[in-house]
């Protein structure tokens, strides 16, 4: 269960910006080119339309499209905004749309939708999250969007059709920006609707064994130990879905039950965000990271209690709550930690390079504070570090 290298979006995959108006030219011609106004076929001349009349028809069509475009821009930019707090990113989102639509040299619509997602913090502090997890009926947050604009979910098989939250079953959907009747899919971002927690019956969902959380006993638990909100359904078809630039769903699956599908996963975006920030911090400090392996991600309560090597596991392990992972840098993909400090050996000093970087991440992003532990090589694995987002500082080493 490892993460793959990121796939960069090629530059030529983005549509070009609007070209500048040529000297002495008609701005309507530029808008017509970008909006693909159809050229009047030459066959009209055979029906009695002169060249002069044809030219008038073309100009009229261009003016009509220009007026429509201007009206749409005005509706987005100057429409009555929703009531939001002063700190909300409404002005940033509005400026992003307005500048992108009105500037002839602005980037394409793909940039507009990505700017929207960035303004809503869906990409996380790292800017590299590629998925949001929701329970059935959840609304995609969009209070800070301009009036007439909202975020929606679309079926990957039919990206122009939105799927209402109330009728969205468990599965993976595409995020889209809806402005009036126009739908703009957001590149590389998924909405993942989870199965409700209460679908687990007698410790299972279908044939997949999960077990029980302590909170199911009826005893009051602290908030960080409450039952998970739901389960991500992972199938053979969707297991490679990216949840961030460097990680996929399959990287966090519990070991075991290899032939049982679908599998079920608890995963918190805070953890993924922290791991992406860890990679960025390592690279900033001069450590090359092409591949970060996840040795252990989510553990079902059943596996945590009796699966694999249970030595050193806590009964209330954060792994059961989807916000913990045991990781190591493995650029050569040989299944063990690389020599990160350049001393020619692989030991806990290399793990400490990772732990120190994680410490710096927490100082810069206090909302991601949690546990950081270093582990030596043992029992068939090399050194690694544990990272979690439990909500308070915890440190240990082995």
At a glance:
This protein is α+β, with helices and mostly antiparallel strands and 398 residues long. It has helices at residues 27-34, 51-78, 90-102, 109-119, 269-284, 301-306, 348-364, and strands at 131-134, 149-155, 158-162, 171-179, 182-193, 195-196, 204-205, 208-209, 230-234, 263-265, 292-296, 324-329, 371-375, 384-388, 394-397. The protein has three domains: 17-102, no CATH class; 116-192, no CATH class; 210-397, Muramoyl-pentapeptide Carboxypeptidase, domain 2, CATH 3.30.1380.
Task: Walk me through the structure.
With 398 residues, the chain is an alpha+beta fold. The protein has 3 domains: 17-102, no CATH class; 116-192, no CATH class; 210-397, Muramoyl-pentapeptide Carboxypeptidase, domain 2 (2-Layer Sandwich). It has helices at 27-34, 51-78, 90-102, 109-119, 269-284, 301-306, 348-364, and strands at 131-134, 149-155, 158-162, 171-179, 182-193, 195-196, 204-205, 208-209, 230-234, 263-265, 292-296, 324-329, 371-375, 384-388, 394-397. The strands form 4 sheets. A 5-stranded mixed beta sheet has the order 1-5-4-2-3. Strand 4 and strand 5 (182-193) form a beta hairpin. Helix 1 packs across helix 2. Residues 1-40, 42-46, 76-91 and 98-104 have low confidence and may be disordered.
